[in-house]
Design goal:
CATH architecture: 2-Layer Sandwich
CATH class: Alpha Beta
Distance between the termini: 18 Å
Helix content: 25-40%
Low-confidence stretches: none
Mean pLDDT: 96
Order of helices and strands: EEEHEHEEEEEHEH
CATH superfamily: Imidazole glycerol phosphate dehydratase, domain 1
Largest sheet: 4 strands, mixed
């Protein structure tokens, strides 16, 4: 199997980002976005998905967290699309539920090449550690649109830190499952012959 890795950069007037990704990693992460809680979420994502991940972002945090979170999601989504290539042999579908104390997140993913996103839930507090809670929802949407995922996600809880962290962990486990290679499959998991 070829290496499923990618290195993607994104430079705009709002952000300067470098992302490297190894889908078949050990969960080693190095993350610096300037938003401590977001760094924690990306570290958790890499750790629980067993993705080797580096993220460096210099964003316009003097304005707010929006451009940093959105553009990191765009860049990471592009990295997944590049690393997976033609998606030969992958499981394609996954469905997970992950708890964190009182919070429970669910993620259903299809690495379909047809971007779609649906979210069900609300966050219990408006922000956590310098990150606007609703940006977690926007992160998932931006990732799905740029990685070519059909992604349905939801969360329920009483603490926004727990709710967001459960979402990132659940996303990681779902993507780990869906990107795994099935040795019985030599082509893509589609009657169309491509994804």
């Amino acid at each position: 199997m070829p290496d499923r890795t990618a290195a993607v950069t994104r430079e705009t007037a709002e952000t300067d980002i470098e992302v490297t990704l190894d889908v078949d990693g050990d969960g080693d992460t190095t993350v610096d976005t300037g938003i401590g809680f977001f760094d924690h979420m990306l570290d958790s994502f890499g750790t629980h998905g067993l993705f080797d991940l580096t993220v460096s972002c210099d964003g316009d945090l003097d304005i707010d967290d929006h451009h940093t979170v959105e553009d990191v999601a765009i860049t990471l989504g592009e990295a997944f699309a590049e690393a997976l290539g033609e998606k030969r042999g992958i499981q394609r579908f996954a469905d997970r539920r992950v708890p964190l104390d009182e919070a429970v997140a669910n993620v259903v993913v299809d690495i379909s090449g047809r971007p779609y996103f649906e979210f069900d839930g609300e966050f219990s507090q408006a922000s956590v550690g310098g990150m606007t809670s609703d940006m977690a929802n926007h992160f998932l949407r931006s990732l799905a649109m740029n990685a070519g995922l059909t992604l349905h996600a939801g969360v329920d809880g009483e603490n926004a830190h727990h709710e967001i962290e459960a979402l990132f962990k659940c996303l990681a486990r779902s993507l780990d499952d869906a990107t795994r290679v099935d040795d019985r499959r030599s082509d893509v998991a589609s009657t169309k012959g491509e994804l």
